Amino acid sequence: MKPLVDRYGRVARDLRVSLTDRCNLRCTYCMPAEGLTWLQNDHVLSTPEVNRLLTIAVRDLGITEIRFTGGEPLLRADLPAIVAHAAALEPRPELSLTTNGLSLARHAPRLAEAGLDRVNVSLDTVDRDAYAEVTRRDRLDDALNGLRAASAAGLTPVKVNAVLGPGRIGDAAPLLRLCLDAGYELRIIEQMPLDAGHTWDRGSMITAGDVLAELGRSFTLTPDGAPRGSAPAERYFVDGGPATVGIIASVTRPFCGDCDRVRLTADGQIRTCLFATDETDLKSLLRGDASDEEVADAWCAAMLGKQAGHGIDDPTFLQPPRPMSAIGG
After folding, report:
1. Taking the CB of residue 267, how many other CB atoms lie within 10 A of it?
2. How far is CA 80 from CA 133, 143, 305, in A?
3. pLDDT tens digits, one per residue of 141-185
4. Would you list the domain boundaries of the chain?
5. Which of 160, 274, 289, 319 gives the lowest tally of CB atoms within 10 Å of its CB?
6. Is domain 4-327 classified as CATH 3.40.50.2300?
7. What is the DSSP letter of 42?
8. C-alpha span between 46 and 67 (Å, rounded)
């Protein structure tokens, strides 16, 4: 086995796999109302190609956790087959899915049967008008139904990922109340410079400090005290626990030094960081009859180019040309 080690001694064990750049929402902080130019179908990894890379990752490179992302991964009809393939790998990796939840009510039982362990559902507000404004779609009921279906199917812990855009600090407490009532785990994530329009502004972003202050008006939050390791969320007990809320402060409290993630895009590129400006093309190797060993070697070489941190605070920082929907979370 060849572990995915970078120059700073970090070992990647968590693989984020974007299965598509397409999405059925148009969130204002992610893409324009008219959407983006999607990848051509022949540029996207096929089912056998995805499965082969998953096999190499787990069998040869020490990956122990796989998160399927998009775009919106439920738009891929072959998702259950890919999950089933991953679940059959040895040693079996932990399998999760990040989704907007719109069609999760329909797919949750089948995904659980295929071997998916849990889900993260992106939900930025529980206010119907605000949801429609942020996503440009009136689909809040579908997202909430998806959450309930995931819980019923045993895809637990069900986590809610929320990004609070400028002026939306008031959504924090209602989101936490929803999660406490339903038994979900809330993760509030600082908005990062990954929008298609490159309009992100640090001066107007809602920070982790803002969120903690806002939630502190309605709840008592205390650090859970558990070692964080490579987990991105700082966790707090809510009103003494056992329920917790997580704050992911990617911008103001970066955790790059403990990062154990690597990303595979829908078109077969390895990205060692969300903010990487270069990629390693594995798709061409697959389609050029490269051996599994050659693919693994290229993957290991890519890891050596991983930077020490994302560099958002550096005056020379450049936002990556790909938006979040094309990178995968």
Report:
1. 19
2. 31, 20, 33
3. 999 999 999 999 999 999 999 999 888 999 999 999 999 999 999
4. 4-327
5. 289
6. no
7. G
8. 18
